[in-house]
């Protein structure tokens, strides 16, 4: 019920925004509010969607299917801007908002269909218990995610893993901005560089998600998905500490972004496949939204402080390499812990 309600809320928000823009042609202030709202809700939407998928799929199924499902999201990131660019001249921005609302309604229909299929095909031994559990509201304190994370070393480990992601991402992002600015004087050239890097990443990601992510998770376990990129980052940042050139950083950025979306993100979602239902929603949302956003903001300030202290990029890279090593160890511990856990409420 939660996911359709959120989708319905988003559809209503899109319609309301379209109506406001129709009645007020000068809606700059409202447009800023809408941008902030959609930015926050986008993160929440993704988190709740994966919580739903974790409910209806077993741990084994998540290993096999999360890669292709993630590939669907990657394909949507390609197709969405393409469709918008083609139709906005015909229907205008307001028409695009109405179309977005309609697509959320379609998503509700598809989600209910998927849930119906799951109820028909759930293992007979656990179907009654599982259906009853899922139709019962979670209830309780909406802020219970904090208590769940603090009480569970496993959930706290996931939160720390996300902090590690944010730390490395922030360092590489700001270093990339500085190096590109120094390397390319023309703004158009910088845009071209970012676009080319993004195209390389997206191509690698969708191929990996379709053909390799599920194979790696099933054959070698979640641990490999979690530790491969951090280990590569340790070596990549070490090389950058010695030779802080654009080509070294560009390779590190491509590997990091490819690995995050093709390996780490699916692996991170799989970590929640064996926890209880309350943790799948409350603790997961806390980690996906609050922990990630706070860590991003915090490490951005740390990076600015190190720059203000005139610490060289090489020295900062050595610190980041140390953080990546801790990140890799944390991923290894989480993966091992996950493989030893018993699944709650499902049969394989």
Tell me what you see in this structure.
- The mean pLDDT is 89.
- The two termini are 24 Å apart.
- The chain folds into two domains: 2-135, no CATH class; 144-340, MFS general substrate transporter like domains (Growth Hormone, Chain: A, Up-down Bundle), CATH 1.20.1250.
- It has 348 residues and is mainly alpha-helical.
- Helix content is 87%, strand content 0%.
- 32% of the residues are buried.
- The chain has helices spanning 2-23, 28-56, 59-121, 124-135, 144-151, 153-183, 187-211, 213-220, 222-242, 246-270, 277-308, 313-340.
Q: Average pLDDT, to the nearest integer? A: 89
SS field, number of helical segments: 12
The helix content, as a percent range, equals: over 70%
| CATH top level class name of the largest domain | Mainly Alpha
Whole-number count of domains: 2
Radius of gyration: 22 Å
Based on secondary structure, the structural category is mainly alpha
Low-confidence stretches: none
If you consult CATH, what is the topology of the largest domain? Answer: Growth Hormone, Chain: A
Q: Main sheet, how many strands, which sense, barrel?
A: none
Helix and strand element order? HHHHHHHHHHHH
Instruction: Label the overall shape.
Output: globular
Tell me the strand percentage band.
under 5%
The CATH superfamily name of the largest domain is MFS general substrate transporter like domains
Q: Whole-Å distance between the termini?
A: 24 Å
Q: What's the count of strands?
A: 0
The CATH architecture of the largest domain is Up-down Bundle
């Amino acid at each position: 019920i939660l996911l359709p309600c959120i989708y319905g809320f988003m559809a209503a928000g899109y319609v309301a925004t379209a109506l406001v823009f129709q009645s007020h042609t000068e809606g700059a202030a409202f447009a800023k509010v809408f941008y902030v709202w959609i930015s926050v809700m986008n993160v929440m939407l993704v988190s709740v969607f994966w919580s739903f998928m974790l409910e209806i799929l077993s741990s084994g199924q998540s290993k096999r299917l999360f890669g292709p499902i993630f590939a669907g999201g990657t394909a949507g990131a390609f197709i969405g801007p393409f469709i918008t660019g083609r139709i906005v001249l015909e229907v205008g921005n307001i028409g695009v908002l109405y179309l977005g609302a309609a697509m959320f309604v379609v998503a509700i229909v598809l989600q209910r269909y998927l849930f119906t299929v799951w109820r028909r095909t759930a293992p007979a031994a656990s179907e009654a218990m599982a259906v009853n559990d899922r139709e019962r509201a979670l209830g309780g304190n909406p802020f219970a995610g904090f208590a769940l994370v603090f009480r569970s070393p496993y959930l706290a480990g996931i939160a720390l893993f996300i902090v590690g992601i944010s730390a490395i991402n922030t360092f590489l992002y700001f270093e990339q901005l500085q190096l590109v600015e120094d390397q390319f004087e023309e703004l158009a050239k910088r845009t071209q560089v970012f676009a080319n890097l993004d195209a390389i990443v997206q191509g690698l990601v969708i191929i990996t998600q379709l053909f390799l992510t599920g194979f790696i998770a099933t054959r070698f376990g979640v641990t490999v998905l979690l530790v491969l990129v951090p280990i590569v980052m340790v070596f990549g940042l070490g090389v950058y500490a010695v030779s802080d050139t654009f080509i070294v950083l560009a390779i590190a950025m491509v590997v990091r972004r490819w690995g995050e979306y093709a390996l780490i993100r699916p692996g991170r979602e799989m970590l929640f496949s064996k926890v209880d239902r309350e943790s799948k929603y409350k603790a997961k949302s806390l980690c996906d939204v609050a922990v990630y956003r706070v860590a991003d903001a915090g490490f951005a300030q740390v990076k600015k402080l190190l720059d203000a202290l005139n610490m060289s990029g090489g020295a900062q890279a050595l610190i980041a390499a140390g953080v990546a090593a801790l990140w890799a160890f944390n991923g290894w511990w989480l993966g091992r812990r996950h493989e030893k856990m018993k699944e709650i409420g499902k049969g394989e």
